[in-house]
Amino acid sequence: MRAYHSARVPKPRDSVLQTYSARIASSADWLAQGLAVAAVGVGAWVGMEAAAVTAAGVLPCLALATMQRRALRRAEQERDLLAEATEALPGRLAIFTPDRVLIHANASYRAQHAEAIAAARGGPVRYDDLMRMTVVRTMFPDLSDPTAPAAIAAELARRIATHENTKQGSFDRVIPSGKWMRVVKRQLSGGRIMGYATDITAVKAHEALLAEAAEKARSLLESAPVGIWELDADGRTRSANARLGRLFPNGIVPSSLATAGLRRAFPDDPEGPLGFPVGREVEVGMPLASGGEGRLLVAASPWLVGGESVVLTIIDITPLKQAQAQAEHLAEHDPLTGLANRARFRAALEAIALEGAEGGALLLIDLDNFKATNDRYGHAAGDAMLIAVAARMGEGIRPGDVCCRLGGDEFAIIAPRTDEQGARAIAARLQAHLRESVCFQGIELGIAASIGIAVSPDHGRTADELQRAADLALYGVKQAGRNAALVFHPALREAVDRRETLRDALIAALNENEFHLVFQPQREVGTQRMVGAEALLRWHSSRLGRDVPPSELFPVASEARLLHAIDAWVLEEALRQLAIWRDQPGAPPVVAINASVLSLRDPGYADRVAGALLRHGVAPATLEIEIPEDLAARDIAPIEATLARLRAIGVLLALDDFGGGLSSLQHVVRLPVQRLKLDRSIVAGLDRSPGHRAVLRATVALARGMGIEVLAEGVETEAEAFAIRREGCTVIQGWLTGRPERADVLVPPLAISALRA
Q: Would you list the domain boundaries of the chain?
């Protein structure tokens, strides 16, 4: 391959020497003679005839010839050095003529195409032949494929076009082996084309690693939960992640810090980048599109790259600030109504207690029958009522007064610097504002409120004393009938003290078994036969030293949440007595007990009754449970399952005090009862009121049609008994048939002794 990388210098010395010797001999110009010798290139090497040159011109010509010989030697050395250098190049270097004939190639290129060069057998090597063999070897080794010739021709045409496109300059490409090559093309003089290809696979791999690292860095920047903002020394934006743009109202990263609209709440740090302190976070404000102000937390890096840039890390803390504000609000406000809560109530109450003589007033408000609304229409209705009440209370108070919701349906108003008269005026306004009903989903919900009032310092000098006095006044309103306002007076405290004493005694009575039962007989009107008896609770308190009537006992038991325990005791004692009376002549075949609202609402009550019957060995049909009339009228749904379970067990059910309150015949149809007990209010007017007789007549007719027995309660005279019998009611209970007696009086021991004999 020497012919492809070195030039041949022709040396026809003899003919040239002869020609130039003649010219030298005839020349009078010694410089021209010297140039002629230099052009010959042999100088003193040739044997010249002495007569051919004159003695005057030979020496200068010889000197010039020597200099030219040395220059040519240096040129040949440089040529060889250049050839050696191209041979040592790691890439592939080749030069082609305009008609694509190879005229120079380095060792790397020759090694790559050794087979094609050898095939030329010393003749010209064409680019087309080189590429054809390369394409076949690397891309289409299976020439049996019928599509191969066309594909080879197309690939060869593409490569030739690329070779001749000298405008391409340089490009990177992947060769079939998978390596990356960088090709540099240059057009030389005479239309010749030089190409140099070097392996950049490692470079590409490194670039791929750098690109991957850059992508990871970008991914980290974009996925970071903070805005990242690079600014130059003048505060102009260099780069930013997408989250930063989302922090600003228009979703676009500002062009500079100056145009961002950030409001700093801290003094500029002269040592810090762009005035931000380094090493700590600072809070800044930012206008929101909604018109409010957002809050951002900013941390600045030190100056980077010799003070050319700084990176700000920005977190949007607006939701956190809003949550903090909401938490602070909720710490002192009720979440449903927005009124002050119990914590703020206490602080305001202590404040008016400290006012001394100027004092203030406390009004405690309870909504009457709110629980009934909740139970009947659901909690959504109850919430709607509470929200409406809160709004109306706000309309009824003065500026500076504090309206609070203490919980449930309990509200309070604290009115600083207000006397009793002013407190009464506030209460009157509240009553007026609350008088109008609340409309909920087309349902009119009536509102009524009981208000207890206490005034400082007259009714208490501390917050606890004031709240206690207002509580007593509120309790007094409820005892008097509700839906009114009452100012505290000392007699209220005395009454409550009595009730607390009674409550303590009641708790002790349960533990010390101070209760006992008495039984009032139920008889047929005509025969006077005892068909049953009602068990009634009695209590003689050892602590109080007196009998406590049911009218005192049960309200206190309800407040003390002892009705469950009392119902359980009555059930056990009644069944114990039924077991004693079993099969005894003269004993009532059925014993009726009263069940409280709380017990009937308890899903486990029926199972406890069944367990007690089994434990005492008493037949279920000998026990009758009386349902309170007011519960049946307003709260049937929650007790239906319990009543159905009791009937399934076999226990008898009776509706107590029918006609004395809110119950009606439609409730009788819904309830699985076997007996109606007419209220005393109907019985008392039978002998003189046609209306009462008509009610009784209709009730008896309906009950008979449904297979339900009617019993008249509270019968005290023969005239009442006669009227009852005339209207079709045959069973009565009352003082006429017998007063409530202990078991041993109702069924005398003598009868028991005779039975044993």
A: 2-86, 89-203, 224-322, 360-488, 501-753
3-state secondary structure 359-389: CEEEEEEEECCHHHHHHHHCHHHHHHHHHHH
Instruction: Give the integer Cα–Cα distance in Å for 723 and 645.
Output: 37
The lowest-confidence range among 177-186, 232-241, 312-321, 654-663 is 654-663
Q: If you average pLDDT over residues 185-194, what whole number do you get?
A: 88
Helix axis angle, 490-512 relative to 563-581, nearest 10°? 40
Among 555, 556, 561, 544, which Cα is nearest to 505's? 544
Are 109 and 94 contacting, i.e. CB atoms less than 8 angstroms apart?
yes
CA distances from residue 103 to 133, 134, 683 in whole angstroms, order as listed: 19, 19, 138
For 503, the token pair is 């409550």
Q: Say which DSSP state 628 is in.
A: P
Kindly report whether the peptide bond that precedes residue 60 is cis, defined as omega within 30 degrees of 0. Answer: no
Cβ burial, residue 148 (10 Å; 0-12/13-18/19+): middle
pLDDT, tens only, 275-330: 888 878 888 888 776 667 888 888 888 888 677 889 998 888 888 888 887 887 77
- d(Cα 148, Cα 453) in Å, to the nearest integer? 107
Residue 49 confidence (pLDDT) above 70:
no
CB 548 within 8 A of CB 515: no
pLDDT digits (tens, 9 = 90+) for 3-28: 444 433 344 445 444 554 554 444 44
Average pLDDT, stretch 115-133? 87
What is the CATH number assigned to the segment(s) 360-488? 3.30.70.270
pLDDT for 22 equals: 53
Which of helix, strand or coil describes residue 182? strand
| CATH for the 501-753 domain, from 3.40.50.450, 3.40.50.2300, 3.20.20.450, 3.40.50.150 | 3.20.20.450
Q: What is the average pLDDT value for the chain, to the nearest integer?
A: 83
CATH number of 224-322: 3.30.450.20
In single-letter form, the type of residue at position 390 comes to A
